[in-house]
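thought: fold this chain, then report.
action: predict
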Amino acid sequence: MKSIGQILKKFDPVKDKYISREFQSFGIYLAEELNDYKHRSLYIKLAKTVHRSILEKALSFVSDSNARNKVALFMWKLAQLRKGQLPPRGAQAEPRTLMWKLKELKAGKEKNE
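observation:
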């Protein structure tokens, strides 16, 4: 059994406070890297909902730049990467979107003929 002193030596109240899942840890990491600890809940939410590779690409883009406002640059790059993101496998397209794309394809074929 560990003594109270041993437990307290390992405990870091800044690092371990309210973090129980991996995505929470990554969200805090994003907030620290962007020097925006005030909005850490936003980064935790992003880490939970957005794919990790997209967040890492946006973060590497920002860390390589010498921008004054890294948070704004991060959000801009994140929006750019999310626009290019494909829907998940097995997801059904909305009927309006699907019909619009079919009409667009038919119009393109008619122009080529």
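thought: worth noting. Residues 4-85 form one domain.
final: tokens above.
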